[in-house]
Amino acid sequence: DTEVTQTPKHLVMGMTNKKSLKCEQHMGHRAMYWYKQKAKKPPELMFVYSYEKLSINESVPSRFSPECPNSSLLNLHLHALQPEDSALYLCASSQAPGASGETQYFGPGTRLLVL
Amino acid sequence: SQKIEQNSEALNIQEGKTATLTCNYTNYSPAYLQWYRQDPGRGPVFLLLIRENEKEKRKERLKVTFDTTLKQSLFHITASQPADSATYLCALTPGGSYIPTFGRGTSLIVHP
C-alpha cells in the first residue's frame, strides 16, 4: 500500500467552527507532514512529526493544532479560522527522518473554505 | 535569502515534442533535488530524485540534469503527450536536512 489518504476531500466551515482534518498512511513511514498550499503557490510546510513527536512547527498560528495519535495517523485540528486560511491542506509522509534521499508521498489534499 | 525559481509562465508545446522545464536556485547547497508532478486540486506526486554528485537521471520518458555550478536543474519529458499536462514542481533539500523546500512550479500544457 503506497497511498496516503486524507479526509474529508472538501470542507466548508465558519470562523467559529471546530473541525479536524485526518491523514493516514500504512507504508511504515516515520515522518509525517502538514502543508498548506494556495493557488499557484508552492506547498508551505506547517508541521513535521518525526517518530510521532512534533519536531518542526513553522510558526503556525495556534488556531491550527496538529496531533499524531500513532505512527499511521496524523490529524490537524482547526478552530476559529480566518478566511485567509482557505487553501488546499496536504498531508505527506516519508520513510525515516534523517535518511538521505527522502521522497515525500502526498495525499490528495483537503480543500478548505473558511467563510 | 534562499530562492528557488521556476518559470511562472505556462509552457505550451505540441504533442510529440520534448518539454524542458527549468529550476534555478540561489543561496542553496542542495544535497539533492526532486521533481514532482501536481494535477489541479491534487497532491504532488514524486517523479525523480537526483543527488548533488549526479549529473543526470533518467526514468522512461523523463530526464533530469543537475548542474551545481550553474545552480540549475533541467527536467525533460520526451515524446510529450496531452496526459503530461500538469504543474511540475522542483524541490531542494539541503545537506543535513530531510525536508524539501518547493518551488512554485511550472505549468506544462501539451496540445494534441
What labels describe this entry?
heterodimer; A: 115 residues; mainly beta; 4-stranded antiparallel sheet; globular; B: 112 residues; 6-stranded mixed sheet; 5-stranded antiparallel sheet
Give the uncertain stretches of chain B in residue-range form: none
Backbone shape of chain A: globular
Q: Estimate percent helicity of chain B.
A: under 10%
Number of strands of chain A: 11
Beta percentage of chain A is over 45%
What multimeric state do the chains show? Answer: heterodimer
* Mean of residue pLDDT values of chain B: 94
Rg from Cα of chain B: 13 Å
Termini separation of chain B: 41 Å
Approximately what portion of the residues of chain B adopt beta-strand conformation?
Answer: over 45%
What do the pLDDT scores of chain A average to? Answer: 92
Q: Tell me the number of strands of chain B.
A: 11
Tally of helical segments of chain B: 0
Count of helical stretches of chain A: 0
Greatest chain-chain interface? A-B, 29 and 24 residues
- Uncertain ranges of chain A: none
Largest sheet of chain B: 6 strands, mixed
Shape of chain B, please?
globular
The ordered H/E elements of chain A are: EEEEEEEEEEE
Q: Give the C-alpha Rg of chain A.
A: 13 Å
Q: What share of the residues of chain A lie within helices?
A: under 10%
Care to describe what's here?
Chain A has about 120 residues and is an all-beta fold. In chain A, strands 2, 4, 5, 6, 9, 10 and 11 form a seven-stranded mixed sheet that branches. In chain A, strands 1-3-8-7 form a four-stranded antiparallel sheet, with no helix packed on it. Chain A is about 0% helix and about 55% strand. Chain B is mainly beta. Chain B contains no helices and eleven strands. Chain B has strands at about 5, 10-15, 20-25, 30-40, 45-50, 55-60, 60-65, 70-75, 85-95, 100, 105-110. Classes of the chains: A mainly beta (about 120), B mainly beta (about 110). The interface of A and B includes residues 98 and 101 of A.
